[in-house]
Amino acid sequence: MSAHGWIVPDWPAPPTVRALITTRAGGASRSAYAGLNLGLHCGDDIGAVVRNRASLRQWLPAEPLWLRQVHGTTVVEADAAEGNPEADAALARRPGRVCAALTADCLPLLLCDEAGTTVAAVHAGWRGLSSGVIEQTLRAMNRPARALLAYLGPAIGPGAYEVGAEVRAAFIAADPGGESGSAFAPGAPGKYYADLYALARLRLARSGVARIYGGGYCTYTERARFYSYRRDGATGRMASLIWMEN
């Protein structure tokens, strides 16, 4: 935990790789967005979000590449990207380029290789996970899976994320081995509790990534610390950021 109340990932990333995950701590936003809301398109006062982003920028080597996230599988190369591209993952191979994923229940995933030559940030809700956003990002990184490290940032926990049967069916349809079924527990009739952390770990492991860290948070239940769309509807967004230094 940083002095700002942000999360500094506890993982054995190489010393040139830096990462942090913001929380609600600090910030100029008020009312339902109270805290350090970094999402421009969730109904908050734009001026407050601009001030929040400027406050965060002081601790970064550059302005993050803010994506227009659509719950898809598109991955962009941050080194060459301009503006705010429509994508749900970004990777960088040059020092100083900051990749970012905005979340408020969806799973943010940070990735790097052990040599510190490539980093990535992924926005992974259930649609992106079931459609293969993790696999697409790993392919784009183009590094041996055994050389990669993954960190799972704060997401809605398995005891709070009730979904319809169609969500479970989507994962099982994409999983001939049937392992994904273990990430769902029965809920109300026709409903299941989904474990985003377990689903991400399964996808990573299946792709050959063995070093997986983080997880265990719950954005829904930790009201004072995290934004949660499922809990509040009108709410802000946290950022999970990763970059390389020289």
Structural description of this entry:
The chain has 246 residues and is an alpha+beta fold. It has a single domain (17-159, 212-244), classed as CNF1/YfiH-like putative cysteine hydrolases, CATH 3.60.140. The chain has six helices and twelve strands. The longest helix has 12 residues, at 46-57. It is globular and about 45 Å long. The relative contact order is 0.21.
Structural descriptors:
alpha+beta; CNF1/YfiH-like putative cysteine hydrolases; three-stranded antiparallel β-sheet; globular; six-stranded mixed β-sheet; 21% helix; 6 helices; single chain
List the helices and strands and how they pair.
Layout: E1 17-21, H1 46-57, E2 75-77, E3 89-92, E4 99-103, E5 107-113, E6 119-124, H2 126-131, H3 133-141, E7 148-152, E8 162-164, H4 165-173, E9 184-186, E10 191-194, H5 196-206, E11 211-214, H6 229-232, E12 238-244
Parallel strand pairs: 2-3, 7-11
Antiparallel strand pairs: 1-12, 3-6, 4-12, 5-6, 5-7, 8-10, 9-10
How confident overall, as mean pLDDT? 96
Q: Kindly estimate the percentage of residues that lie in beta strands according to DSSP.
A: 15-25%
CATH superfamily: CNF1/YfiH-like putative cysteine hydrolases
| Lateral arrangement of strands in the main beta sheet | 2-3-6-5-7-11
Please name the CATH topology: CNF1/YfiH-like putative cysteine hydrolases
Question: Which runs of at least 5 residues are low in confidence (pLDDT < 50)?
Answer: none
Q: State the helix count.
A: 6
Radius of gyration: 17 Å
Principal-axes geometry comes out as globular
Terminal CA distance: 24 Å
The level-1 CATH class? Alpha Beta
Biggest β-sheet description: 6 strands, mixed
SSE order: EHEEEEEHHEEHEEHEHE
Work out the helicity level.
10-25%
CATH architecture: 4-Layer Sandwich
Q: Which structural class fits the helix and strand makeup?
A: alpha+beta
Question: Structurally, how many domains make up the residues?
Answer: 1
State the total count of DSSP E strands: 12
